[in-house]
Amino acid sequence: MKIIGDIMSQRYCLILFMKVILLMIPASRNSIAECGDHINKDSGILKYPAVGRGPQYPSYIDCSWVFETPGTSIVLKFTSFSIESDHDLVYIRDGKSKMSPLLGQYSGDTLPPILTTSTNKAFIHFTSDGTVSKDGFSLDWFTVDNGISLDIVISY
Ligand SMILES: [Ca+2]
Asked: Which structural domain, as residue segments, surrounds residue 13?
């Protein structure tokens, strides 16, 4: 009986292990970037503050994300946006550093337009001052390779 018990417990562990792996797949695909992350996947979600770190972003934050992905350009599509007008700002740059050309700088409660970089690199920088925090932002991003979304190629 002990052997059967051992086999059963090994089998149970294996099933548990498989379930954990399956749970991790969508999580890694929809990568949730932490402040300061270097992002190199072909698609994902960038939410700030991250799930469980909110509901509002902290004061005096200075946070940036570097995108360096496969493909030829990156599409950034904001899905939520709530940043204190003029005092807290999100900067999107067409390249991988603070010195790269500015695609746009945004604050307030209006969704920024869909942005496309000219290369496979982008730099997002978020700063907040010492008063009034809001809900932050969330964006979907995916990589395009010569006009074709890598995400669609992989998904279908
Ligand atoms: Ca503020």
From this structure: 1-30
